[in-house]
Specification:
The complex is a heterodimer of chains A (317) and B (545). By secondary structure, chain A is an all-alpha fold. Helices cover 76% and strands 0% of the residues of chain A. Chain B is 30% helix and 19% strand. A 5-stranded mixed beta sheet of chain B has the order 7-8-9-1-10, sandwiched between helices. A 5-stranded mixed beta sheet of chain B has the order 17-16-18-12-19, sandwiched between helices. Chain B has a 3-stranded antiparallel beta sheet with strand order 4-6-5, covered by helices on one side. Classes of the chains: A mainly alpha (317), B alpha+beta (545).
Chain lengths: 317, 545
Amino acid sequence: MGRYLMRRLFQGGAVLVGVTVIAFALLHLAPGGPLAMYTLTTSMGAEDLARISHELGLDQPLPVQYARWATNLVRGDWGRSYRDSRPVLVDIADRLPGTVELMLASLLLAIGIGVAVGILGALRRYSIFDYLATTGAMVSLSIPTFWFGLMMIFVFSVSLGWIPSGDMYSLGKPFSLLDRLHHLVGPVTVLGLVLVAPWSRYTRSGMLEVLYQDYVRTARAKGVPAPRVVVQHALRNALIPLLTLAGVQLPMLFGGALVTETVFSWPGMGRFFVDSLGYRDYPVLMGILIFTAILVILGNLLADLLYAVVDPRIRFG
Amino acid sequence: MKRREFLLATLGGVGTAVASQALRGGRAVAAPQKGGQVIVGLSQEPTVFNPLKPHIEVDRGVHMCLFDALWRMNPQGQFVPNLAATIPTVENGGISTDGLQYTIHLRRGVTWHDGAPFTAADVEFTYQLIMNPKFDAATRVGYDGIASLTTPDPATVVLKLSKPYAPMLALWSDTYIVPKHVLGSVTDLNNNVFDTKPIGTGAFTFGERVAGDHITLEANRKFYGTGPYLDRVIFKYIPDLTVMFTRFQTGDIDVTGIQGITVDHFDEAKRLKGVTLHTGPTNFVEYLWFNLGRPQFQDKAVREALYLGMDKQSYIQRIYYGVPPVSESYLAPSSWAFNPNLPKHEYNPDKAKARLEEAGWKVGGDGIRAKNGVKLSFSNSTTAGNKVREQAQAFLQQNWKAIGVDMQIKDMPAAVVWGDYFFKSQFDSVTVGWNIWGEAGGDPNVLNWFGSGYIPVKSGKGSNTTQYANEKMDRLAEEGVSVVSQEKRKPIYQQIQAILHEDLPVLPIFYYVNIEGTKAGLQNYQQNANLVSNVWNANAWWWAK
């Protein structure tokens, strides 16, 4: 187990180095640069842009820029944002609470509804409920989030006035938990419904696979109560593919959801990444990419380790 | 002074009726009421709080609330004192007759947000910081012509120039003064506590920034000038303009800032209840910007023909809903230097064709004109994703196809178009909106834009990316900045506008109109085309209850 973990972590480290090289090269080789943002709005001339470019080190050859960036990173210095001069880690850390709040609430909603719908769909296969759930999943997968979000706002905010049209909380008002929850309703409904489809589909197929296994039939024959059969015998075994899904979705928890954040004016990581990309804020972009890469590696590792917990047949050697 | 400022701040704007009533009566009939907050929606996020660092427009709006310059330009194009007690002129002895010395008397009794007194040493420090090679200042252009800046006493600043420079007043109107007692002692001039906790003399103090979401500014109760009447101003970042409009509809934001309401939402906005719409023209001119380094554009006949072949009226009518007024100049009619006698644009495709024929551009087998192996074919670029502009490009493409000219649309992300592609003149043509008057702080100076010594690919400085070179223009543009008197500058700039209209290095199309909405009840909101942000007088805003 220990050796397995070491090997996986070493592999992860190698992947990380690869990610930084490729990401750095792609970001810098893509046309455009961080100084373009000043062209349209200020009276800065070519001499000013050349001076700033030199001071940021952007006039250096790419390998030199990478070496400097990587050396600093090893020393724990992730660099500073070109846009707000703050350390990249502070900028990322600032976006995390809002991102996790939105994503966790949405994921929990999606998992709750998705797993329940999936189990019921599997138990009542080809029933009206099952057909409705399948169609619902298709619709939720194919509906454009931007449109859906705006529709939510039009109906429930503009027309009915039931929910706020955006923001994490009422601006300029003292903190209130109720106010926070109220603001969560819109974005979490949108995002939760978008995320619910894979959970219900995976659960349904996972359950169907195990429900017709011999040991389930045996349990039933032995007279084990139906709910216990479903939960203890079937669901536990149907969980394995769901763990993979959870592992894959873990980075999302911190990565945010661009479209929902945009529609509901929510300050999350998705928006942060796209804004930084627009400004070519290289230190921030690299920071987010590394951060996400680490999460992906850890998420997958965690899912693999959890397999052993839920499935005694799996051993690491 | 307070009263005069108040008058200036309210003239011609929203709430004028209330204000003038108050003033006419000689007593406060409807005096501004204190309290409340305003949420300004912005489609870009302000992040730079040191006003001397490289920044973008939305940052400037926050600077205007937190800081003061020596003076600020009002909507009528006049400088109004802020940290200075008076505006220096030749008449009041503030500017020497040779234009080489400026004596500035500062307002007394002004304090920084932390309570420290503001003095001439802060102005001196601000100038020194801009010129300090260790500091990444946004620009040193203009400041580098100051031979010395001295402070004979704590309330006086004396500038000596190496040669006369007329935009000096405009330059200082956009130079926000920073505190010496804070920034003078930091170890790293570029990254320090000032970036996250700025301290100014402005009407509002810095509250907090929730990154990616909003910035809260609190009223500065010790402000030396008018107001502030509001308790706070909140700048809320709303990246999508459709979402911004929706949030204005629901009443979540009180003001739609900077990009405001897009023209395609204008009709819907007019039907909204409980809101006031402001539709003043700006000094932003939409241009078709040529790269004269391309052989096809070197021929003046081509530029003329393209202007003749552009159906400007339909362009504005069909794509921009007829909202923005036609432009023939880089200056707006509100500028003192505006030339009202420029020939009016004429849409005449037949004349355009004839002009090209006589210049030797003959139609080839593919329907596109060519001369000496050079095809009359080029690309036009702008920021990708700007829907309205994309339609305008397609419209122009049709216009010009009819006269045998082939224009391809090549739009790219902002970071690409406005980087080296633009600054190193790698483009054929771009569609772009510039505020040449406002970028100079409210001055008609064009040296940087059309002077032949200011072509970035040739001299490494300036913004003359169109690579326009005309000796007469150079002479006039130099003369325009070296004469201090506005009376004498006026004919020079009128001539400059006539030459630009004759040579057409760029085609002016229209003046942008900022359609902005404010919630009814907000008093004194006033568009100021001379500045890049309309929060310029937030100190005078108040809610009528």
